[in-house]
Design brief:
Length: about 280
């Protein structure tokens, strides 16, 4: 015979929630969280967003739901995607005057458009990272998400695109500045970009053999292989530039290529996206 406790749901949503919380606590599922908690939890990000120190702060979101939705959540008939923290997400609010608007969306792109095609048309600022999002089922076209190293670069690209149009091939795309502040870069990455000139473009030379083949042999089996935009040729046959979809991946590739004895010289070059329109 089943001797497990039976929970009777009250018609009042708040009362039901508290009765469920008490039952869970009685079973020892959240007792550990109720023990002495630190006043604050260190943020995993150095410029950071602190995690909530207690489980109750997360569960308080349930109380903010309309009564009907709260009751559905309590009885397990809805998903956690209905929680405000999930529906709205975390928002970064910078301390200073700079709004940190560094992210741009490019929409109204044909389904067959590649991220490389989009980046070849971008001008005005260095790109920190670029991603192609499959939003065809939502808005009928793909979306390119571009994050620039500076808010000035993002604003310059958007302003020029609006005044002169932004074309990918023979298709006119729509460019929009994301009005929510962009999550800050890691301090070490920011230092590498500002003080050491790190970009998403690497240029290398080799002592013997085609430089492209040497680079391909080193990077093709690495984690950065899927983050390479492509090669860019130079007049000198043994000098080749590799473009990446992010500065972070370019830095990883730099370390790998530095370990290759056949590479005689390697350095970070200028990002083609940083050039102005001509």
């Amino acid at each position: 015979m089943d001797t497990s406790p039976v929970i009777e749901h009250s018609t009042d949503s708040a009362e039901t929630f508290h009765s469920l919380s008490s039952e869970v606590e009685a079973q020892g599922l959240i007792r550990a969280n109720q023990e002495e908690s630190p006043a604050s939890v260190p943020s995993p990000h150095p410029q950071g967003i602190a995690w909530m120190p207690r489980l109750s702060e997360f569960l308080d979101d349930i109380k903010c739901l309309p009564i009907g939705e709260a009751r559905l959540l309590e009885t397990g008939k809805t998903k956690f995607c209905n929680l405000p923290v999930i529906r709205i997400g975390l928002r970064y609010i910078p301390d200073g005057d700079d709004p940190e608007l560094r992210t741009v969306t490019v929409t109204r792109l044909p389904v067959s458009t590649s991220l490389s095609e989009v980046l070849r048309s971008v001008r005005g600022g260095d790109v920190l990272n670029a991603t192609m999002c499959d939003t065809v089922a939502i808005i009928g076209s793909q979306t390119a998400l571009l994050t620039f190293t500076t808010s000035m670069g993002a604003a310059g690209f958007v302003q020029t695109a609006r005044s002169e149009g932004f074309y990918v091939g023979f298709h006119k795309a729509h460019v929009e500045l994301v009005t929510l502040p962009t999550y800050p870069m890691r301090r070490i990455l920011q230092d590498r970009i500002i003080n050491r000139g790190r970009t998403r473009a690497l240029t290398a030379t080799s002592a013997n053999g085609p430089t492209k083949d040497i680079i391909y042999g080193v990077l093709s089996s690495s984690l950065v292989a899927n983050h390479i935009e492509g090669f860019k040729d130079h007049r000198s046959q043994n000098e080749v530039t590799i473009l990446f979809y992010s500065i972070d991946m370019a830095m990883r590739a730099f370390k790998l290529l530095c370990e290759c004895p056949r590479i005689t010289k390697i350095w970070f070059g200028s990002d083609p996206c940083g050039r102005t329109y001509q």
